[in-house]
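Researcher: For the annotation table, I need structure tokens for non-specific serine/threonine protein kinase. Please keep the output clean. Sequence:
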Amino acid sequence: MYKHLSRPTLPEASQAVAEREEIDDYELGETLGVGAYAVVRLATHKTTAVKAAVKIIPKDPKEGLEKTVQKELTIHKGLKHRNISRFLKSREEPECLYLFVEYAAAGELFDKIEPDRGIQEDLAHLYFIQLLAGVQHMHNLGISHRDLKPENILLDASGTLKISDFGLATVFRYGGRCRPLQTPCGSAPYVAPEVLEEQYSGDSVDVWSCGVILYVMMVGNTPWELPSTDSEEFSLYVQSGENPTHEPWNRLQGPVRKLLLSMLKINPSKRITIKAILKDEWYQRPNPLLTNGQVNDPVQLASMLMENVSESCSPVVAYSQPLHTGRIAPSQSAVFDHRRYASSQPARNNERASDSSLGARIAISWQDEALELSQPTTQLTEATFLEVFSSERLTRFFSETDPSQIIEALDDAMVSNLVAHTVHESLQKISISTTDQRRCFLTGEVKVVPYGPSSHLVMFVKSRGDPLEWKRMFKALVSALEEAENPIHVEMSPI
């Protein structure tokens, strides 16, 4: 089984480096994502105004990160495909390594998927085609991604899919010879069962992950917490003979169901290959949104995504797993300790979450976790696709209630929904560091800012985790606000 490895905090000297204002010809802006050992920030070229995402990785000889980062750099530099985020350049300084990659302006694909609902089949087909194209390119070069999950599936300004984050990628074939892989890594709901056995083929596990991603696009939820009998949902899948008929599997019919089940064969020797997928009936179906694998009308694509997404805050299934009763301490694995920057108001949560709160998730080593790259959709202003579809507004609301009351009500809602958090009252924000219903990490902030003379905008900004689960949490919390004994006035559109 997997060992929970120790995670030392980011060295304090490196925190200052991660907060610097410029590097080379780039001005550094907002933080796009965080991991246990890296921070990703938006970078804007001083002359051309072209944006990039820069991953800042502190150097610490004691932790041995440099070899891992060098491997990521080498692999990413060699991948050149329209559905893979482009490597731009790297820079090494005494304290940090900097990796500059293409900025995916439209953020994460899964921001556009409605929880427990999914997206239209044409949209799922479009993004499956593009996902498979990028994965096929990697496999042709003997590279396995090993961490295909929502955070690593991004969209550019035209809505084109980009695979990102190659921190766990590795060579599985060289000189025509394949080597078995053994390192347990990935995100629990998306890994193949054989990864748990620590003996697997790099190409086959990527096919499994693509199958789970297709499932999520179609139904709006992951099929299980972990592909083992520890998961009740996976046990039902096994008991059904890998042909389940219960909800939501019964919503999947016809060719797409056939393809999905062939990708999610538990025995990897019986699992469909990418070569066979390319000949599959559903894969080859016509799609009015695609021309030669590319988006032919970004505005129409954005419009369809907007039609698909419901902005209602109707009640959803209880958001989080019950970790334990009472207030839950925030995780200590974030890059920055938010309590360090809190105002004179004491943080409400100051005890460490127990190891048991992580539940049945794969414990990725700290070296692997340091290389996560995630880009929340907070810069949607560049092109027509972005003008039509803005994911920002899908996890925000407006209220005329006093900010202190909003913060207090959100605090109560998070406690009742078992969302681990820290309140910064004078800053009018809440830091979230919790686990989602699949027991995977979920972190971000809720900020309350003025909007007009008497209204306030409440923004939920994710920094790490499954965007679908972030949206699910948002809906659960807003529902709790509206149903509280002293409800908070909530409007999804500007007041």
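Researcher: And a one-line annotation?
Model: Residues 121-140 form the longest helix (20 residues).
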